[in-house]
Amino acid sequence: MTWEPGRLDDQRHLSGGDPGGMLPAVAAAAAHVRTGHRTAVESRVDRLAEMGRPRAIVVAGMGGSGIAGDIMAAVIGNGAPLPIITLRSYQLPGWVGATDLVIAVSGSGDTGETLAVATQAVRRGCTLLGVGAPGSPLEAIATQASAVYVPVPVSGQSRANVWLLTVPLIVAAAALRLAPADAELFERVATALEDMAHRCRPASESFVNPGKSLALDLAESLPVIWGSSAAASVAAYRLACQLNTNAKYPAIFGELPEAGHDQVATFDGPMAERDIFADAPAHALRLVVLRDVEEHPQLTRQREASLRLARERGVPVTELAAEGVHPLERMASLILLGDYASTYLALGYAVDPSSVSAISELKARISQ
Ligand SMILES: O=P(O)(O)OC[C@H]1O[C@](O)(CO)[C@@H](O)[C@@H]1O
After folding, report:
1. Ligand 1 centroid, distance to 181 Cα (angstroms)
2. Measured from the CA of 132, which atom of ligand 1 is nearest?
3. DSSP character at residue 257
4. Cβ–ligand 1 contact at 348 (below 6 Å)
5. Which residue's CA is the nearest one to ligand 1's atom 12?
6. 3-class SS of residue 281
7. Looking at the predicted structure, is the pLDDT value of residue 283 above 70?
8. First and final CA of the chain: distance in angstroms?
């Protein structure tokens, strides 16, 4: 698997090298926001408000579905009047009970961890909200428990349907008066995503295409990806996961200020010394910092100082700024840019962005 930047502007390679259609799926982000909103409204997610505000919210989901919980928590923000956690495992924590809301998100509606948590939530008498494929085992659990279920029309990999899976959670947060989010906001987010998709479209060449430019930055490096606010950190985490799954590429995720207390030390380590890997420059670090308009003043200082520190040591850096006012808009712009970049990175290495054979093999081995 060799890196060939010319592949990014070779239209035949961009379609032929993407048999699962990851690029068109990424381009559907705006449509997914609109459909996710419409489906949530039609499924009467607002009924959650009748049960009153829960004591805590637990979002159960894995991979491309679990990120929906992180996005919801970042939209609600630091002023949240209740704890919100994303659970990426098989077991509900002992403290979760009947006064809590459990939201189970699964694109396939058939992921073992998520089904296990949804079942436990029903047994404990929690309020359950399900989001996922129509006619799935998750829908069956929700229906049997008379819970609200949002049957979103997911096609392909869950990670390529992130907005279908996330928007119903933001609608739920608005119904519970935890975040302002109305039809006008979702339309604004969709428009911003359309704009980003246009800038990153396959026909747009590398030197003007932000998705391809980011892929060019990331290629042949070990990316260390930080966020400088809660919202930017969700996008940073998503980018790391998309690099893993789309490009089969390693990435290290960090969040300021914590990364300034540990990961920053790697700027002085072997991976930062490009010359010791002279015949394998692919091992050199690259610091990617996702910045937000809403940063704690100390985090702005940490971000700026960390970037300086990296540059002084010869560690290449990429800085990306979120666009928009509402946190959902800001995360959406960064996430879509990263979705494109990870797909272009895969295509530049002639890797199929849709296939996840190692994940399938792992699943097959544990099901025996
Ligand atoms: O959204 P689902 O179907 O619950 O799957 C969760 C995650 O698990 C995977 O199927 C891989 O195991 C991913 O594609 C997905 O992100």
Report:
1. 27
2. 1
3. T
4. no
5. 359
6. helix
7. no
8. 31
> How much distance in Å is there from the Cα of 276 to the middle of ligand 1?
38
Averaged pLDDT score across all residues of the chain: 94
Mean pLDDT (whole number) for 322-335: 94
Q: Is the CB of 359 under 6 A from ligand 1?
A: yes
In this structure, how many other beta carbons lie within 10 angstroms of the beta carbon of residue 233? 24
End residue of a domain, out of 126, 154, 188: 188
Same domain, 180 and 205: no
pTM: 0.95
* Residue 316 included in any domain: yes
Q: What one-character-per-residue DSSP string does 76-144 give? A: H-TT-SS-EEEE-SS---TT--TTSEEEEEESSS--HHHHHHHHHHHHTT-EEEEEE-TTSHHHHHHHH
Query: In the 3-class helix/strand/coil scheme, how is 170-184 assigned residue by residue?
Result: HHHHHHCCCCCCCHH
220 C-alpha to center of ligand 1: Å?
A: 27
CATH number of the domain where residue 304 is located: 3.40.50.10490
